[in-house]
Write a structure and sequence with these properties.
The structure holds two protein chains of two kinds. Chain A is mostly helical. Chain A has one domain. Chain A is globular, with a radius of gyration of 21 Å. Chain B has a single domain, classed as Methylamine Dehydrogenase, Chain H (7 Propeller), CATH 2.130.10.10. In chain B, β25 and β26 form a beta hairpin. The chains are: A mainly alpha, B mainly beta. Chains A and B meet through α2, α3, α5, α6 and α12 of A and α1 of B.
Amino acid sequence: MSGKSKKRRPRSSPARPSVTEPVVQERAPRRAGLFGGSMVSAGESSLPTLGRSLGRGFLAVLTQPALVIAAIVLVAATWLLLVGFGFEGAPGRLSDTLAMPPISTYFDLGTGVSLFGLGTSFLIFLGVASIVRAVVTAVLAGLIVESIVDGRTSRYGVLIGLRAVPTQLAVQLASISFIFIGQAALQALGPGIGFLGSVAALVGGLFFTGFAPTAAIRQGRGVVESLRRSGRGAMLPGGRHLTLCALYFIVSLPLALLVTPGSEITANPSLASWIVVFAFNVLHLVFMATFAYRWIVAEPDVPDQPVPRRQPARARPARVRGRR
Amino acid sequence: MSSAVVSAFAAGPVAAQDGAGAWSQFQGGSEHRGVLAEGPAPPYRTRWTFPAPEDEELSGAVIVEDLAISVGERAVYAVDLVSGELAWEVSRTGGPISTPAVAIGNRTTVLYLEGPDGADDTSPSASASPSASSPSASPTSSPSDDIDDDGTVLVALDLADQTERWRAALGAESRSGVTVDADTAYVGDVDGVVYAIALADGRIRWTSDLAEGSGAEGATGATGCEAFDGGHVDVPIGVAEDRVIVVGRNVDGGAVAVGALSASTGECAWRVFPQLGSSAISAPAAAEGIVVVGSADRFVRGLAAEDGQERWSSLALSVFSPFSAPSLPPGTVYMADLGGGLYRLDASDGARVWSYQFNEVVLGSPVVSGDTVLLGLSDGRLVALNATSGHLVWQAGTGPGRLGALALAPEAIVAEKGGRNAGLIAFEHDPQGRLVDVPSPTELDTPTTLSRIGLAAVIVVAALLVPGIFLRRRFGATLPEPEDADDDGIEDDEETEETERP
């Protein structure tokens, strides 16, 4: 990590745009409904293009040895710790160790069920794992934000990351809800539509909470406000944000399961398994950086208040306006 | 297994007991202990193979008087245990294949299930289940006219001359196999009815309906073990300490129940529902006052034989096959899960002593031969583990197709082989063979794993950071400079900062 001082850049919270500021008032009405504009062209969007976002994500992680090494150390330590606790499972699941929630929540749930089955011990494990994951993810998010903004990683990144811990913990809990909703959809609707419903719950969870840790780090607001602003940021039109979330989902679950060797239960994964697992976890950090970069760029345009839903023209009688 | 011989049937009828070297039914006896203390030790070699006629499958074998007896689709086969030659066969009219049983006594009797012809594994019989008022028994030696064509028939053969001694008609199709204890045979059917049938004459002593309550003949006022509608009794029944241990499964509704009936009256002693939402459960085994089953929540449970209270539970990695039962040597439980995990548990508290992971589907039960635990795997391997260390000491493949139920004799192991080369395979001790000592892959090999982690880390760091350095030189590592700030939405340093760099 470098402590060398560079040109001063915004390091935490930029000025909070007020609803009274013209820029916000101009952009605020651009709401196209739930997921509106999330899969269409990024023509005039406040969010950068997917290519640019992913490029900056790669740059933010791959130029920082501390982040790459942290990913490797964390995954290896997780495995050794779990095996020490008696975990028996396939090492392929390690590919999602550092995934963003709710993907990572699958890792925690699966690991807990393998270790303890469904019961009180499982709930305790889930609570502890959620706290540990919240701290680790928040710190990584802080380092990533520092890397994006300052081009380096230092203790400062760790410190600013820590203030996102409550928000990250809330995201963890919300993710568990998303997964249960997905499972309920699967049970209720069957393997066809139900499967799509469960996938939608996961992608939707990522869509609305993906910006939350960065928002908390950058703006230092409370848990609820950070989550709200994350959702509003995701709803900015034209950013193809849903496409990014779907892409991340595909990379994290089907692709990781397909590519990662090590479907057999063992405590001693092969060299190939470790290489693929490490690479996938670095890729998770890249996506985390991609989300962080998008938020940082779009941050000034994220409204402080929910944007009123535009009423259809025929549903807005002239006399209503006249009464005002 | 109870060793009582009922003298009332001394005129010819039979009673089950532990004959010397006999593996008389599923898992060796009515308790399903799956143990033969004087069984062969590893290493092993193939003694003989007996292919199933017409490429059909055979049931797990039972062993008596140097014969391995197995049920096929169209016949019951007795194979000489020494030579592997067919000793005799008796034709059978079809129906689901299940493990036969042997009742050893003055007249040793082979019992097997037959028909209904054309029944498949998925369609339950449409026939009505028998009731208390109308038990259908045919206590004569010849096939009777009142046998229901839609139901299965329990057939008793005299081992000595293969003459048919009697037939007992059940009300529906049966897949449970036959369990023999003392002077009674027990079978279950797909309508959820349990039958207790006298070995002497094939008379049905009592029936108990898991779906509708007891219909016990001679058990007035009996309380039934009714569990749920649509339940099947298609898992081998266990008997221990005057308790008939029954597993009822509702495959469509996803429910199971374990019930204990009085062996003498059919009255329900207790019943438990191990889990909801799944019908996956192992066959039961019982010994030393404990009933052991493996259920769909991946727990192996030790239930008190007296009242069904759970004494302990132990978590496995996968669910359990209904074709698999625990093995219960004194003080120990061996259990194999569907995913290939074999576990040794302490029978007193369920604590895991060791486990071995084979990463292969297991549809059979572990058996204990002396100090060796044996298991057949779906890839055709027979594996042997040291009971003390839990390490693999010997293994051999038998070609494609599963290796299922194992039967033990003092000089041989008889394995049921499935798949294209279905039949029976017998193994014997091989004095020239070699033993190995391979720990479970779930045991951490610290030096190997750490060296792999280190090497992988070097490779990944080099592969990712070198391009990273190039990218940094090409594009820079930070956001665009201030002139681009408007595009990126980044404010300059005059803006408010809530966190100052330390």
